[in-house]
Amino acid sequence: MKRLLFLLAFIATPAFAVNPDEVLDDPALEARAREISAGLRCVVCRGENIDESNASIARDLRLLVRERLVAGDSNEEVTEFVVERYGEYVLMKPNTSGANLLLWLAGPALFVAAAFGALVYLRGRSTAKEPGETGLSAEERARIAELTGKSGE
Predict the structure, then answer these.
(1) 10 and 76 share a domain?
(2) Distance between CA 77 and CA 131 in Å, rounded?
(3) Which CATH number do you get for residue 64?
(4) Mean pLDDT of 115-143
């Protein structure tokens, strides 16, 4: 029973790909490295941050982050350095400025426009008259009678 609980606990924990040889001796720097790595996307794995990825490029990025921290860079400087090299794609949460602002606002704006369009359509349907309610005018009845050769009613 204890083995089963141990196995379940082991499986339930996230599997990080950080190798022991990558871990920094200073716990404060290692915590900063983990924080930065959690915000950087693996360029191969797409859905994983570089801490979770086993790809070789992710390992290179983890080492790069740790090198920059040991060199004395701040968290922001390290992130900017990586973004300069690989583009904003490496950010797990892209910035909300510049052209990205348009992308961030496009989804909610399109949702509001679609909701407004649906509201107008449904309101128009609820106030529309039934097709049989209007009937034909006297002129229309006379024209039909003329075309069909029958006398008007």
Answers:
(1) yes
(2) 68
(3) 1.10.8.640
(4) 83
Count of the separate structural domains present in the chain: 2
Same domain, 80 and 104: no
Q: What's the predicted TM-score (pTM) here?
A: 0.57
- On the CB side of 60, CA atoms within 13 Å amount to 9
The answer to whether the beta carbons of residues 87 and 35 sit under 8 Å apart is no
pLDDT score at 8: 52
Contact 62, 33 (CB under 8 A): yes
CA distance 49 to 36: 10
Eight-state DSSP code of residue 91: B
Closest CA to 17 of 44, 40, 39, 48: 48
Residue that is written with structure tokens 């961030």 in the block: 104
Amino acid occupying residue 38 = A
What tokens were used for 95? 């910035």
- Are residues 109 and 85 both part of a single domain? no
Asked whether residue 21 falls in the same domain as residue 77, the answer is: yes
More confident residue, 132 or 97: 97
**Does 153 map to a domain?**
no
Token readout for 110 is 């399109």
Tokens describing residue 59 = 């390992």
Tens of pLDDT, residue by residue over 61-80, are 999 999 999 998 899 999 99
